Amino acid sequence: MSPPSGPLSQLRRGHEELVLGLLRKHGPLSRGELGKLCRLSRTTLYDILAELVATGAVVPAGQQDDGPRGRGRPAETLALNPGAGQAIGIDFARRALHVAAVNLAHEIVGAASEPHDADLPWERRVDLAERLIGRLGGGDLRLGALSAIGAGVVGPISDPGGGPDGGPDGGPDGGPDGGPDGDIESNGGIESDGEAGEPLPHRAQVLLRERFGVPVLLDNNTRLAALGEAIWGAAAGGRDVLYLRLSHGVGGGLVIDGSLHRGAYGLSGEFGHIVVDPGGRPCSCGGTGCLETVASVRAVLDAYRDRGGHADDVRDLVEAAEGAEPGALALLAEVGADIGAVLAALCNAVGPGVIVIGGELAETGAALLEPIGRTLDARVMPISRHRVSLRRATLGEAAGALGGIALVLHESPLLSRYPAGPDLAAGVPPLSPRHHNLVKEGS
Q1: Where are the alpha helices (DSSP H) in 245-390?
Q2: How confident is the model at residue 116 (pLDDT cuts 50, 70, 90)?
Q3: Per mean pLDDT, which of 160-174, 308-322, 425-439 is the most reliable?
Q4: pLDDT, mean of residues 111-129
Q5: Which residue of 3, 69, 71, 152 is 20 to 30 Å from 158, comparing CA positions?
Q6: Cα gap 26→28, rounded to integer Å
C-alpha cells in the first residue's frame, strides 16, 4: 500500500530518519547505544528498528565485544545497509532523461542517461526512467519504505513538494510553453498535457508516485543542476555561486550566502531571458533578442550552418572547434562575448565568487570559455575582477539528477532555507505492494 501521510506517520518517519542519521554518523551501533543517542522510548526504538530491518534499510553488523560485559551474549550491532536504495534523482530534460541513485550511506550507486524525442509522452518518459533506474546498482537496487525520488523538470516550480506555479497550464501567465515548436528548456515555461489538461510537471509527479509508491519532490531541473554542482561538482564548498546551463534552452541557478536561491514563485535563474540584442530574434518566452536566442544549442547550430558550417549536433561543432575551424571559432567567440556580457552584469549585481558553465555547449571548451572570460574581465567591476573564478561544470549529464537526490535528502546547508514541503501526490489511490521495490529489468 501507499505509505500513509497523516501526522502519526510523519512522526514515525521523523523517528526513522533520526535512527538512520545516527547510524550514518556513528557507524554500527547496538540497540542500547542507539537508545542513549536518540532518547526514544525502548518500545518505540525497537519497533522502528524492527521495521528498518524488515525493509532491509538496516542490517546486523556483528557482535559488540569491547570489554567485560555481564552475563549473556555480546550485544548485536546494527548498521546501514549500503545495498538498500534510499534516494533516486531524475532529470527530465527536454530531449533526454538522466537518473542517479545513492544508498543509505549517501554513496552514489550509479548514474545513467538516454536521449529521447522532445515530444515523448510522459508515460513513456516514466517507463524510461524505471528502466534506467533498474540498471543502477547491478539491477538489484531496492526502494524501501523510506525511499523518495527527487525529479527535475522544465519550468518554474512554486514548491519542491508541490506543483508548478501559475495558471491552469502551468506557466507564469497560465499559458503553455511558448515558441512554434515548444522547444524551451530554460527555467521559465511549462509544458501542458493536452490529453490530461494538467501541467506536465504535476503529471510527472503523479506518474512517478503511482509507479514507485514513494514520495516525489519536484523542482526546476536547471536549478537542481546548480545544486548538484555546488555540492559535488565544480563549485563544491562555494558560498556564492552562479551556475549557467547552455543546453536546448538557457537557464541557471544561484547559491547566495551558502543557500540555494529560488526567488519569488520559483523563478530565480532566468538568465536565458536577459536581452542581449533588442533587435534580435523572437524568443519563445515572448521577448526579443534574449540570450537563449543566441546561446542555446539550436541557435548556435543554426548560426553555424547559416555561415556554411556542417554540424548535425553539438559533437560535430566540438570537433570543428577542436580542429580550429575558423567559422566555428569565430561563432563561439561571438556567442561567448554575449554570454560574458550577461554574466558580467549578473556578477556586478549578485557578486558570486564562482561561475560554473554547464550544458552541452560547454563541451566546446576553451573555444567558448575563453571569450566568456575575456568579456568578464572587461566588464566586471575592477575591484572584483580577480575575485571571480570561471569554471567548467564537472558532473556532466548527472548534475540535475544528483541535485534531485540532494533535494530529497535535504541535509546540505545549501538547502537550509529551502522548503521541503509534503508530496503533492500523497492523495493518490493506494498502490500495489509491487511498487515498493524495483525489479530487475525485464522481470
Answers
A1: 292-295, 297-306, 314-322, 326-350, 366-379
A2: very high
A3: 308-322
A4: 92
A5: 3
A6: 7
By the 8 A CB rule, do 339 and 276 touch? no
Regarding pTM above 0.85, the answer is: no
Task: Give the whole-angstrom CA distance, residue 349 versus residue 242.
Answer: 12
DSSP 8-state assignment for residue 368: H
Report the alpha-carbon distance of residue 380 to residue 181 in Å, rounded. Answer: 36
Instruction: Give the integer Cα–Cα distance in Å for 272 and 263.
Output: 16
For residues 439 and 443, give the distance between their C-alpha atoms in angstroms, rounded to a whole number: 6
**pLDDT tens profile 349-359:** 999 999 999 99
When the pLDDT of each residue in the chain is averaged and rounded to a whole number, the result is: 80
User: From edge to edge, which strands make up the β-sheet containing 58-63?
Assistant: 29-30, 76-80, 58-63
Q: Going along 166-249, which residue ranges are E strands?
A: 192-193, 198-199, 216-220, 241-246
C-alpha distances (whole Å) from 349 to each of 29, 177, 242, 352 are: 49, 29, 12, 9
The x, y and z cell numbers of residue 281, run together, are 530574434
Grid cell digits, residue 125? 518518459
Host H or E run for residue 86: strand 84-92
What is the mean pLDDT of the segment spanning 238-259? 93
Report pLDDT digits (tens) over 14-48: 788 788 878 877 888 999 999 999 989 999 999 99
Residues whose CB falls within 8 Å of the CB of residue 368, separated by 6 or more in sequence, listed in order: 321, 332, 335, 336, 339, 357, 361, 362
Question: Which H or E run includes 98?
Answer: strand 96-103
Q: CA 23, 28, 32, 37 torsion: positive or negative? A: negative
Torsion of CA 117, 121, 123, 129, to 10 degrees: 20
Q: How would residue 64 be classed by pLDDT, with cut points 50, 70 and 90?
A: low
Q: Measure Cα distances from 158 to 188, 252, 308 in Å.
A: 12, 16, 43
Q: Give the CA count within 13 Å in the CB-facing half-sphere of 439.
A: 6
